[in-house]
């Protein structure tokens, strides 16, 4: 048995107990080790809205040590006696000034500010937290990096100090409220550093000040709403390589500002990829609507990590390739302009941005697009025991599971496009989603409702199966052709061992003809075992299930069965049948050849409801509920199989 001892450490300041603290210590154990305390958020942080923050930071490239102040304006929603904000306890608070403050208290990673009077609804107040210290990685940092980092590029040598706050790490370097649904109306960032460093951030660069002692100060301002985790800084010896885009809907050019390591090789090795940003931005604007932050800029700031982070208007990026640029740029619409309202819905950010990778190829490199979607499916197929819906938002690795959140998310969005079956309508759904929820948040059910509203289709079962359920369909196929009649049997099971949901959807099959040519037919798969007869006037050489990868799936087996001559319920070989049908309590089978027969029964949704062996060619079904069922008979001696359909009556 392990004994856990928790120490409460208080910083300098006035430490009188007050309403914010009284009665709340009991919640501390539950919050310890997490980035936020849900009880405290409910009681205090949700009673005010974040309006404005001006971060003033002194940062250099030798370490992550910083001196900062956060001027914060909030608006009171409900009567409030204290203000709770979050700041990692390794950062020391020097003072809190502004409106009339009686005292402030620190408990773990929270600062509780006590005003001299009760705060009333609609009241706006401003306070400034002055602090300093070396940021420490919290318990819920993103994989591989902390909220505030310092590292040298192993390839180019440049040492960079930069932030990466997703999902719960903003508090590691600035006093904040980590709530997805409370976007800041605007954020200004002022960065003081040593020349020749540059301090990069989001928004527009308003001015640069040359200061005594070789210091330089950069003033950035952004007037667009922004989620807490998209606030960013990046400091290093950069050189600017800028470009312009001319997206549809804008009369003048849009500025793309790239902060690249000063080592010339960093730009020379990535020049063509970096300058692919403009055409991508133009292509995305044509499909999703004008770049959401067109009054400011887009750009990149290099930092030594293996990936990218979609900081609003300025992606922090460690490596440059076509896919990463497309992904992070796509986030400016999906994740930044419209942010998921809960980390459970993270696929609205990451799945959609991953689909933007595919779309960038479709728009700009169409000959490679099919292979990209094939790669997406290959990645997604190898982890199918998780749902797109995130059940544990305290587990960062679960939130950002690559094969599920990113790759399955992209594949599912591709299937929605297939089901809408109209590209103009599909991209109108995407554009309207941005227009309707721009600069705010949205959840999956709001996207579902919008897709239904604009397409006229019902996606209820689709989201039940592909968003909430685990796994993907696994198909086993056999086919034959007699004369001009094509016969097909498609069997489906779920790859997830703990989930038996049937994936009901129209499935495309491509028939390849002897002598050349092909045709595609769409067949609805609504039961676990489906059989089809289709008139085809040409001899078939082979078939493929969904060769264009509209549907995420495994094809377990696909074979031509030359001995299979009918899909009727009565076998031509053995004349197997069942009576009575409909039935109430028992089934009797006839025409069965000798041997031991195993029986499996599935309901109309594909759920396995009964497994048994026949006794005297009879089967008890009295415990089955009323409805339609599929029965599969298997002779365990020779493998003979027969599929029958029955109706169970009350």
How would you sum up this structure, described in words?
By secondary structure, this protein is of the alpha+beta class. The strands form nine sheets. A seven-stranded mixed beta sheet has the order 4-7-2-1-10-13-12, with no helix packed on it. Strands 15, 16, 17, 18, 19 and 20 form a six-stranded mixed beta sheet that branches. A hairpin with a 4-residue loop joins strand 25 (505-513) and strand 26 (518-525). Helix 5 (277-288) packs across helix 6 (322-331) and helix 8 packs across helix 10. The chain is elongated and about 100 Å long.
Provide the β-strand percentage band: 35-45%
What CATH architecture label of the largest domain applies?
A: Sandwich
Shape: elongated
Low-confidence stretches: 1-37, 567-573
Q: How many strands in all?
A: 36
